[in-house]
Design a protein that fits this description.
The protein has helices at about 5-15, 20-25, 35-45, 50-60, 65-70, 195-200; strands spanning about 85-95, 95-105, 120-125, 140-145, 150-160, 160-170, 180, 190-195, 205-210. It is of the alpha+beta class and about 220 residues long. The chain folds into two domains: about 1-80, 434 Repressor (Amino-terminal Domain) (Orthogonal Bundle); about 85-210, Ribbon (Umud Fragment, subunit A), CATH 2.10.109.10. A hairpin with a 5-residue loop joins strand 6 (about 160-170) and strand 7. Helix 2 packs across helix 3. It is elongated and about 60 Å long.
Amino acid sequence: MSTIGKRLDKIREVRGMTLEEFGIHLGYGKEKTPARQVMSRMVNDHRLPTIDNLKKLQEEGIDLNWLINGVGSLTPGNNENESGKIVKNHFYDGPHFVETVISKNLNYPDIINMQSDEIYTVRINTEMMYPTIKINDTVNAVRVDRVIEQGLYVCINETEGKPILWIKRLFLSGDKKNFESICDNPTYPKTTIDRKIIDTNQLNLRVFSLTLTVDKIS
């Protein structure tokens, strides 16, 4: 089964569910769009599962490595040996770690010029980049040890003992001691951040793409 959609449909078949039943099981059908319509789009690869979908299926014993990458089997413990480049995909729900999936198939083209074999998929829980990126939208990023170039970054740091996520466009100042941070949402003012503060973040992630999820479809 070569796609996520086909593997989702396999889960549905194994459980003996209709598309409607599987959609309701994953939490759809409560809004305007019927559960069957959402699942039809998903199994036909017109939509990707959300982080909530992945968390629920993983809690029910589904091997996310198999679901996302096609490596292994539907349930953990029967992984196949395949050649290829090993890539780790870390999933975060806001600032909170969810799961790491290891793949031997690179899911993103080399033209994005990733400097790491580790990908971070993060659900955004802030309106800082609205309307470009809305709450519950998902971004893909790579971890950087230090922010040394301009770009869109997701950062996680600790404030009053709690992990806080923020997403901003960072521009290095002429003296290279500070970053000018800009949000697409005009209600968040432009600020200057000391480079030393950026260096102490728990995570500094450079965004390279947005992930189209059901959450983004009205």
